[in-house]
Amino acid sequence: MILQSLRLHNFGLYGGHHLFDLTPDPEANKSVILIVGHNGSGKTTFLEAVRLALYGKRSLGPRVGQAEYEQYLLRRINSTAQERNAYVELVFKSQHLGKDDTYTVRRSWASRGASVIEALQFDRNGNAVDEIPRDDWNHYLEDIIPAGVSQLFFFDGEKIQDIADNQDNAGLSEAIKSLLGIDIIDQLRGDLALYKSRNADHHNIPDPEAPKRDLEVAKTELVITEEQIGSLASKRIQLARRSEAAQLLFEQEGGSIALSRDTLTDELKKTETELTKRTAEFKSLVNSAAPFALAPKIVATFSYEVERAKRLQSNRNIEEFITSFENKMNNKTDGDWTASHFKALRTFSDNEYTTDTTISLSTDPDWVLSKLAIVADERIQVATLSTILSELQSKRTMLRNQLKNFRPGGATGAFEELKKAEYELGALEAELNRKRTEATQLRALVERLDRELRKVQDAIFDTARAEEQRDLATRAQAALNDYEKRIVEMRLASLSSHFIEAFNGLVKRKRLVQKVLVDPETFHIRLFRAADEEITPSELSAGERQLFAISMLWALGRTSGRELPMIIDTPLSRLDRQHRTSLMANYVPRTSAQVVMLCTDSELTPDLASIIEPHVKRRYQIGVTDGGLTTTISETRPTKTSSAVEFSRAH
Description:
With about 650 residues, the protein is of the alpha/beta class. It is built from 18 helices and 15 strands. It has helices spanning about 45-55, 65-75, 135-145, 145-150, 155-165, 170-180, 180-200, 210-250, 260-285, 295-330, 340-355, 365-375, 375-405, 410-505, 540-560, 575-585, 605-610, 640-650, and strands at about 1-10, 15-20, 30-35, 85-95, 100-110, 115-125, 125-130, 155, 515-520, 525-530, 535, 565-570, 595-600, 615-625, 630-635. Strands 2-1-4-5-6-7 form a six-stranded antiparallel β-sheet. A hairpin with a 2-residue loop joins β6 (about 115-125) and β7. It starts with a strand and ends with a helix. About 25% of the residues are buried.
């Protein structure tokens, strides 16, 4: 991973817009970016901005709440900014699917009174990282540089001092675990323990023999019941044939009508009464207009003539009206009507109502026409009554013949046989229906028991599989323990080797440390001289303890195998001149492919600057204005001096 640039807008002391180009030049062996300024000018803010861009709320610690984080963001908006908003933007290169990709992460926020609106923008090669849900962008960023690991690559003088003063530092122990991969082993071990606990409750599994026995009994009962249904169905066919034969014999002996003479007599009386009633209705129709239905053409002609007679009658009524009106008008001396008027009126009436009809009606023509209109309906009624009368006459004839040939008790035997056959058939069908219902219930029982048996068998299989998986988890835990022991031994040996190389190369007392032991449980570090003589912390000077911490961080980075940039904030303040020189010459150029070094102008003396300048790609000078409220940035191009060349060749 290589940092490309850092943009700051209204962040902390960095009021307005600022850009740091952090790109190193590996071909020219210029891996160092120098940021120089006095105390309070914004060096630590630079380191804080990098961590904020990568981790957001996590940059403040694992237990920081959202409200506390929002208050932090509000405080980090530059106090002189007119617009209450800010952002930090970090551009870096990192490996993705075997190639170098450029990532841009920008965290911006704006004040809304006492609250904050925050936004995260995350791009790869200029496009949003869409294959990852937006809610998972923070997790993806932390996978690139875990927060626990970053404290060993992005650190300040206080971190160095903490490690120097306390070798049992809990943060260092956690960082060592992360760098050595032990934290992943611990997480996997914990996940395996959780998996075992979640899959441990499989002891109350029912005995499969009980549902198996119940299923076999139900299947046997179902087979017996289906055989009984088959037998009953065959017997029913025989009884049905017997019932049909008894029914036929019964009908041949007189049928149901022959059961009683009284029944026949009553039926004959009812038929004759109905026949008399229907005959009277028929006569009434015949005595009315119904006979006209036999001559439809005559009826049509007669209807036409009645219409003409109706018009003639109307003409007469009009003539009488005209005559009456004329007489009335003649009695008036000042009337407007003359004889010519009445003559014209009569002429119009004669032309309008003249007819040559010869028919003369003695009644109202409308009444005659209404009677003729129902001829068609009465024709239908006559036809219907004729059919009913024919059926009633046939039935009366049949009943009379049955009474004439009636023999008391002739159908008794056939009737008794029919009753017996019908009773037996009904009882058999009831039994058959009961057996069919029983078979349906047995089938449902068989299906239910079969499901229960499969569930029990599945539960037994799941239990066996879970037991096997728990056994595999237990074996995996044992393998993890063995792997952890071996990997820790191997990594700690590598850590010791790298530490000895780094520490002895930095301190004045060369070969001071010959062996380093790191407790694999507590990660407590013990130093030894030759002949296994332990070096107590009190034997190390303050500067040597500082170099001890720096060497440990360097060794951890080498051991982890991670290619990460190094950001160091004020590492020289507690070192003497010789140790500063050694650090600048031997540690800073070699510690990483990219080193961003934040130091004060009092730390970076001319002689130290001359040592590091051959490896410096860019140098930024930062200061403050507005009474210490705003940071200013200026870039100065480093030049390789002759003294620097000589020092570089000498070392």
